[in-house]
């Protein structure tokens, strides 16, 4: 899975029937070494109710369809968790609501 | 599979993975000799790996082939801890 920050929402009115009602979020991938944005963006289906600014990780490919929200849907990226904290080499590099 | 080194832990209480009893680790891809390659992944740990250890990562649909990850939204899984790598009769990595 890849770490990313929720940077926005994506609205699509005309879309495939089966993905109606699904929330699409704009994610910017994060460099875990610096926790900075990589200017590399992806649209992901949201299965956890993530909000703007939150750090999440998402599953890609067929694995992204293994959630109740994305099951049977044309998804190749799904947010599966909101990150509370990340420790690297014993040091806290990210703490939700403090970054 | 690819080689990676465990560099940290990722804690998430709000998750939709349907998995209990396994943690997520932050891993950094490395060469078979243990040199960092810079690219990070969040991987599900089913072998109880620890920080600093070199591990093997299965990616894509293949990482759903364990009892814990079956039909779960996981695209990177730590499937083994590397003890040593032998390249043409020479040990290039040892735990």
Give the structure's gist in a few sentences:
The complex is a heterodimer of chains A (99) and B (95). By secondary structure, chain A is an all-beta fold.
Integer count of domains of chain A = 1
How would you sum up the global shape of chain A?
elongated
CATH topology of chain A: OB fold (Dihydrolipoamide Acetyltransferase, E2P)
Which percent bin holds the helix content of chain B? Answer: under 10%
- Strands in their spatial order, largest beta sheet of chain A: 1-2-3-5-4
Structural class from helices and strands of chain B?
Answer: mainly beta
Number of helices of chain B: 0
Rounded to an integer in angstroms, the radius of gyration calculated over CA atoms of chain B is 13 Å
Strand content of chain A: over 45%
CATH superfamily of chain A: EutN/Ccml
Helix content of chain A: under 10%
Radius of gyration of chain A: 14 Å
Kindly report how far apart the N and C termini of chain A lie. 21 Å
* CATH structural class of chain A: Mainly Beta
The CATH architecture category of chain A equals Beta Barrel
- Element-by-element helix/strand order of chain A: EEEEEEE
CATH C-level category of chain B: Mainly Beta
């Amino acid at each position: 899975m890849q770490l990313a920050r929720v940077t926005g929402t994506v609205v699509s009115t005309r879309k495939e029937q089966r993905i109606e009602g699904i929330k699409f979020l704009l994610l910017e991938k994060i460099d875990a070494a610096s926790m900075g944005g990589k200017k590399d963006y992806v649209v992901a289906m949201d299965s956890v109710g993530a909000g703007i600014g939150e750090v999440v990780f998402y599953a890609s490919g067929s694995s992204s369809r293994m959630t109740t929200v994305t099951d049977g849907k044309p998804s190749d990226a799904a947010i599966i968790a909101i990150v509370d904290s990340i420790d690297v080499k014993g040091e806290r590099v990210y703490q939700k609501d403090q970054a | 599979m690819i080689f990676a080194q465990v560099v940290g832990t990722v804690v998430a209480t709000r998750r939709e993975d349907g998995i209990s009893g396994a943690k997520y680790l932050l891993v950094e891809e490395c060469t078979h000799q243990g040199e960092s390659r810079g690219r990070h992944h969040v991987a599900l740990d089913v072998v109880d790996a620890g920080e600093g250890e070199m591990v093997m990562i299965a990616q894509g649909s293949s990482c759903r082939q364990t009892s814990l990850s079956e039909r779960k939204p996981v695209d990177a899984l730590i499937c083994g801890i590397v003890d040593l790598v032998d390249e043409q009769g020479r040990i290039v990595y040892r735990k």
